[in-house]
Amino acid sequence: MTQKAASIRRAADSVPNDSQEIGSAGGDDGILILAIANQKGGVGKTTTAINLSAALAQRGLPTLLVDLDPQGNATLSFLDPEQLHLSVYDALVDEDRTLKDAVHKTNIKSLDVIPARISLAKFESKLLGDIDSHFRLKDRLKTLLQDYRYIVIDTPPTLGLLTVNALVASTHLLVPIQSSYFALEGTDDLLVTIHDKRTILGRDIKNHIKEVFGSKVFRTIISRSVRLEESPAYKEPIFSFAPHSSGALQYYKLSEEVIGRV
Ligand SMILES: Nc1ncnc2c1ncn2[C@@H]1O[C@H](COP(=O)(O)OP(=O)(O)OP(=O)(O)O)[C@@H](O)[C@H]1O
Ligand SMILES: [Mg+2]
To answer: Which end of the chain has the smaller Cβ count within 10 Å, N or C?
Structure first.
């Protein structure tokens, strides 16, 4: 086994099996709180958060998307900036607010969003030294647990306080991993995304990931697709932007797998 494979194997062993819980925010209530995280940038976290939450909602399952990335890209897929009345930052920091105050309805019937603005970048410095800083999201989500079946949390490409809050609040973790060489370098921990099945490298990396992580890898693989790349520019999830595209089909299948795993 190469050194890289060994280090990935070690990481894989430390990841709980398929449906084992990582946190305990709401697992007992039958609610799935899914953090989408990978400290690597541009691996498809936000694309997955947007389209997985849209797919779950389109199945009629009440779903909440929490945007915990100051870039706010997930937010902008569903809401216009002028529509935002309160963002996740205010709802997490302000003592007089609850997260419920920041819930926004979307055009998709069963999908609500708690939006992020660039102000969220201040979260870390604002909460620095607070004893509950890691638990803020988990604590404040409690009032929303009865309203949803799925809560999906998009995170920034760092392992800072925002991502830690998402991990602490979640019952499950989904790690998008791109089937490229650099995706494996330094990734300690899996949804294969932006996969190009035409290249030998893409196939090799996918096989390698499957070999090391086994059943922890979703069967669904998200292919590299121009439609998926374009859809955020049109502020739409893939299901309305290109309903018959491979990306729509794959994210729909992913939602089926997520439902089946828990
Ligand atoms: N399957 C895909 N095929 C082609 N392009 C994709 C695919 N998935 C995502 N992209 C594009 O790749 C870029 C990065 O994707 P995305 O924003 O989802 O990654 P991210 O992990 O959230 O990035 P960041 O770490 O900056 O938050 C975006 O331009 C997105 O449109
Ligand atoms: Mg992102």
So the answer is: N
Does ligand 1 lie within 6 Å of residue 46's CB atom?
Answer: yes
For residues 147 and 33, the answer to whether their CB atoms sit within 8 Å is: no
pTM confidence score: 0.87
**Distance separating alpha carbons of residues 240 and 230, to the nearest angstrom:** 12
Q: Is the CB of 69 under 6 A from ligand 1?
A: yes
Residue in 38, 39, 47 to alter for ligand 1 test, most ligand atoms within 8 A of Cβ = 47
Token pair recorded at residue 145? 């647990």
Residue range 3-261, CATH number: 3.40.50.300
Q: Does 234 sit in the ligand 1 pocket, CB within 6 Å?
A: no
Burial label for 139, CB within 10 Å (0-12, 13-18, 19+), is middle
The H or E element that residue 150 is part of is strand 150-154
Amino acid at 103: V
Write the DSSP symbol of residue 195: B
- Cα 88 to Cα 71: distance, rounded to the nearest angstrom: 12
- Record the tokens describing residue 3, joined without a space: 């050194």
Residues 6+ apart with CB under 8 A from 40: 157, 178, 182, 183, 186, 187
Among all ligands shown, which has an atom nearest to the Cα of 45?
Answer: 1
pLDDT digits (tens, 9 = 90+) for 84-138: 989 999 999 999 999 999 999 999 999 999 999 999 999 999 998 899 999 999 9
- Does ligand 1 lie within 6 Å of residue 39's CB atom? no
Which has the closest alpha carbon to 56: 230, 239, 244?
239
Q: Counting atoms of ligand 1 from 1, which one is nearest the CA of 71?
A: 27
